[in-house]
Amino acid sequence: MTYFVARKKDFEPNVSLPMESSILKVFASEVSEEVASDAVQIYGGMGYMREVSVSRFYRDVKLGTIGGGTSEIQRSIISASYGGYEPYRKIIQSELIEDKIKETPIGELMRSLGVLIQTVGENPERKKDKSLSLDLRIY
Q: Which residue ranges does the record assign to the Acyl-CoA dehydrogenase/oxidase C-terminal domain (predicted)?
């Protein structure tokens, strides 16, 4: 999707892509936060110490979900832009149903994208523990 947005901006510099940009921001910021959190867990108690650079990474990536519009705001933008994407969800479902690409990495990505498109309008105030695992699986 990053390449799609970059290519679209290359050919149409004045085009506005709020939904695509928001999807990319939510994905990148939440995945990087999850990875940094895992790194801190791997280091254990030392993960919080300044001697280990992991603690700084963890602090820095936390800003990604807050700065430049929180993840909840980005989800609201996605939800507001969602209307025209129903046909894409149907195409994705038909491709998966026809079993052409079901067990491939692209099939997994398309299945996740279909779930994302189907659930973008959900309330962002849902419980964090459910939300994070679902959202990361979606992306």
A: 1-81
